Amino acid sequence: MLPLMSVTEISQDALITAMADGLTVVDVREPDEYAAGHVAGARNIPLGTVETGASELDATEPVIVICQAGGRSMKAAEIMGRAGMDARSVVGGTGEWIAQGRPVVTGPSAG
After folding, report:
1. Alpha carbon 92 to its chain's center
2. Cα–Cα 20 to 30 A to 75, which of 22, 50, 69, 86?
3. For residue 58, with 0-12 CB atoms within 10 Å meaning exposed, 13-18 middle and 19 or more buried, which class applies?
4. What is the pLDDT of residue 111?
């Protein structure tokens, strides 16, 4: 078994800053969950495909990972971290984003 890695968690406000800075946001929920409502600009790479899907990302830049509540994004950020990426999990996930009245986009991933 691989050792656990420490994952950096960021707040909802830090997510807004990261998005403004142009960092990649990855939503690791299943496609139906993503289509029901996601943070604008987030790429959908479901948790089960993170090991292969993360290879499509720029490993030289931090990646922000989000799910519904924070559990899957922590796992995905850990997987990405083991691959040498600087991945950060959003505390509270999309559920908290919506609870704070922030906007979401519906529909499938564009790519």
Report:
1. 11
2. 22
3. exposed
4. 54
3-state secondary structure of 35: helix
Answer yes or no: 67 catalytic. Answer: yes
> Amino acid identity, residue 48?
G
Four-residue CA torsion sign, 42, 43, 49, 53: negative
Task: Compute the distance between CA of residue 89 and CA of residue 100 in angstroms, rounded to an integer.
Answer: 18
Catalytic-labelled residue, pool 67, 77, 80, 85: 67
DSSP codes, 69-100: SSHHHHHHHHHHHHTT--EEEETTHHHHHHHT
Task: Give the tens place of pLDDT for each residue, 67-108.
Answer: 999 999 999 999 999 999 999 999 999 999 999 999 999 998
